[in-house]
Every structure is written in structure tokens, then in C-alpha cells.
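Minutes, project check-in
Item: structure for the 103-residue chain
Input as provided by the requester:
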Amino acid sequence: MQITANGTFTLECQRCLEPFTIPLAIRTELLLAESEQEIEAADDEFDRVLAGKEMDVGLLVEDELILAMPMAPRHAQCGAGRMGVEADRPSPFAELVKLKRIQ
């Protein structure tokens, strides 16, 4: 079975919580298996799904779309910056380097 889908999705940026759209294009090939044993015994790189006389193909397509989406969606260049961290504040790691030089 070959699944091909193209479209754009509106997601919420996990950094600034504003909506943004991303293009999504997938092309997936799934092999239909007759039993769980066939799936477990397979020793190749193909993905297999358990096939039946009455399958909900819509759920398979939905699963593939969910798997193709980013885990933590965010803008490529988000205006939220570094979550409110002040830019002029010295890094605590820079202070640790100074301590290391003393010893």
C-alpha cells in the first residue's frame, strides 16, 4: 500500500504559542501482512501493517501524517527569543570558567 499526501497544516509554535503553517508532503509504502507472526518474522527495512478484510485506511493515513509532523513545532526564527533570558546578563558558565582558572 502506498500513501501519498500533500498539504499545509496550522500548528502552534511551542516557543511563542502563536499559530504558524508548515507544508507537509509524505510518501510512504506499507506492506500488508496477514498475521502478527509475519510482521515479527520480517527481517528487512519495510514497514508492515496487519491487514484485514475491513481496514480503516483513513486511520493509517492519519497515523502517517502524525508521524511526519515535528515533535515540538516552532517557527524557524521565532520572535520569542530565549524565553525571557536577558541578553546582557553574564552566563553562569562564564563565571565557572573564571573559577577553574584560579585553581
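Outcome recorded: The chain has one domain: 2-102.
No further action items on this chain.
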